[in-house]
Amino acid sequence: MKWKKQILPLRAYQPGKSIESVKKQYHLEEIIKLASNENPYGYSPSVDQALLNGDSSYTFYPDGSAANLKTTLASHLHVEENQLLITNGTDELIQIISRAMLEPGKNTVMAACTFPQYKHAAIIEGAEVREVELVNGFHDLNTMLTKMDDQTAIVWLCNPNNPTGTYIPEEEIRRFLIQVPSDVLVVLDEAYQEYVTESSNSLSLTQQFSNLIIMRTFSKIYGLASFRIGYGISTSTTIQCLEPVRLPFNTNVLGQLAATTALSDQDFVQSCRAHNTAELQQYYGFCEEHSLPYFPSQGNFILINVKRDADEVAEYLLTKGLIVRSGKSLGFPTSVRITIGKKEQNEKVRNALQELITEKVRP
Ligand SMILES: *Cc1c(COP(=O)(O)O)cnc(C)c1O
Questions:
Q1: Does any ligand 1 atom lie closer than 6 A to the CB of residue 219?
Q2: What catalytic activity is recorded (predicted)?
Q3: Residues of the chain whose pLDDT is less than 50?
Q4: Those residues with Cβ within 8 angstroms of residue 199's Cβ, 6 or more apart along the chain or in another chain
Q5: Alpha-helix runs per DSSP H in 264-342
Q6: Atom 1 of ligand 1: nearest residue by CA position
């Protein structure tokens, strides 16, 4: 058959191991999943109530424009509704942007290593992918600028970067945007924005730079990954161009209701951020005590160089019922990426790592 030739080597997304599969395989009762940067505190309790009280008109198509959510979100962010695009997770927004702009002959610039979906989507569209190595875990913005030419359509910045957790300060992004040609779309992926403790006001950049789109999600701090709601913030002109590229009913009625409700509980968000910041400090202390290199993180995860084969370390942690992400497939073969869990969960991870590091056990 006449497949696009570039899709043949692609593999389906490899999700973190599921709790059920690890339970079965290792005959364990308790499993702690810290592999996909989900929120260990779950989601706002108000969401369950809203879902119970919602009218269940499931027979009808949902509101494809997600009007209620858009209104609530616009007022929360202090932007106009026509500056928002609601999508089936940020993953769909990445796909929509790529479909709208990329094709053979065009290219796109991104860091290596970063969130893998940018590259994946670009390959499917047949565009050239220009990757720029991170420097000490950070985006190398100057080299990224030199990789752009007339055929460059999109530049991706992941901030904080997954998997390193490193953060580009707003001033550096501003300096970068000033130098990017105004017909190149800059995508700023802020999936972890609500965890960031460094000062940042990236939304103000959308007023100054019409070629910027910010991506955010309800999957991370809002704890609603299963509902698949993400969104883009840009100029109304850019949103207008992207709207026809999304599926007509890309988000469903339950997801829209859950996200709208979650947005009104900012106390929950603040509390999760505070716990996360405190727990990150515990990891920093542990890494320093054991001389393990790590990147200070502005997300809800930390990439630790365990100085051993990452797959073996992840496998060892699995036998203890701890699911983390091996850095091997993320471009860091001796590191593990650990989602910041609750206090007791993090202590279990550190105890298990300590056993490895002090050579009490071999992976
Ligand atoms: C988790 C994540 C996403 C995907 O989020 P969804 O909204 O669940 O699709 C996007 N970008 C980064 C950097 C992420 O870590």
A1: yes
A2: L-histidinol phosphate + 2-oxoglutarate = 3-(imidazol-4-yl)-2-oxopropyl phosphate + L-glutamate
A3: none
A4: 170
A5: 266-289, 310-319
A6: 191
